[in-house]
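Recall from the previous lesson that a structure prediction takes nothing but the amino acid sequence as input. Here we apply that procedure to SOSS complex subunit C from Acanthochromis polyacanthus. The sequence below is the only information supplied.
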Amino acid sequence: MAANPPGQAFPNKARVAILAELEKERRRLIQSQSMNTPGASISLSRPSLKEFRDNAEQQHIAAQQKAALQHAHTHSSGFFITQDSSFGNLILPVLPRLEPDS
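The prediction returns the following tokens.
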């Protein structure tokens, strides 16, 4: 492997300096934008993988809820609603309250 010529190290240093300057400018723009419009800041970074997975999981659960609700309404005479459940139930049956005979 041949050694790099001495003139080639300078362009790499220049690239690093340019990238650092661009990063500073990006941060300054984000900060000034958030100060000017506090409720309407636009993120210039990509969403994280965790956010992407959470969103995909929520869409999948919503699709499962819709399918389960549709199936329940089709094959049952009861009434069902979708609701978040800590037990993993996608739909819950709605039972009417009957007043006791007096």
